[in-house]
């Protein structure tokens, strides 16, 4: 299967050029022209690599890396920035970008960097290094494969249910308001209500066999929100 690259770039002509050339290289290309859309595509599409412009509307490239790295420490991120923005390079790399390239870049060099990052990723996957698995009681989440099991049984979750559950599992012991959960899982631009979160919590409890009256994992903190107890 073709490896999937997400391109987040707000300059339409650069974006078109990248889509064309990456497509010709045999990659499956997804694209977004602002940071927020890019972040939600990164969550839903699970690309093999992200090519990320730093100067983006709605959510900067650096904020994008910060948000995504909290959830996915693995996916290679290659940062693209305008010439002379050396500070971006340092910030980008320290936030967890894998590589950095300055505009205007030579297409050949960009393609070589992409191929190298994908090779490193495959090598990691083959050795099973840094597999991102979280355990909480009888609940096990494989954050890379996006699979959840409880007492060894596979739990069938939708993508959003998995996102919410993995947020809880990776942020245990703290109370989160419905607004905070909405922002973390659905993104800042989402206009739903706290009731959406309530509905998802009800469903998650059903999926993991948590008793709503005496929950073992997903506790309702009255007047505040929810807390996950591992
Ligand atoms: Ca830009």
What does it look like?
With 230 residues, this protein is α/β, with parallel strands linked by helices. The chain folds into 2 domains: 4-126, Response regulator (Rossmann fold); 133-228, Arc Repressor Mutant, subunit A, CATH 1.10.10.10. 44% of the residues lie in helices and 23% in strands. The chain contains 8 helices and 12 strands. It has helices at residues 12-24, 35-45, 61-71, 86-95, 107-127, 159-170, 178-186, 194-208; strands at 4-8, 28-32, 49-53, 77-82, 99-103, 133-136, 139-142, 147-150, 153-155, 175-177, 218-221, 225-228. A hairpin with a 2-residue loop joins strand 8 (147-150) and strand 9 (153-155). Helix 2 (35-45) packs parallel to helix 3 (61-71), helix 3 (61-71) runs parallel beside helix 4 and helix 6 packs across helix 7. Residues 10-11, 53, 55-56 line the site of calcium ion.
Q: How many domains in all?
A: 2
Helix share, percent: 40-55%
Distance between the termini: 37 Å
CATH class of the largest domain: Alpha Beta
Tally of individual helices: 8
Bound molecules: calcium ion
Q: What amount of the residues lies in strands?
A: 15-25%
Task: Report the biggest beta sheet as strand number plus sense, adding barrel if it closes.
Answer: 5 strands, parallel
Output the strand order for the largest sheet: 2-1-3-4-5
Structural class of the secondary structure composition?
alpha/beta
Radius of gyration: 19 Å
What is the general shape? elongated
- Poorly predicted regions are none
Elements, N to C (H/E) = EHEHEHEHEHEEEEHEHHEE
Mean model confidence by pLDDT: 87
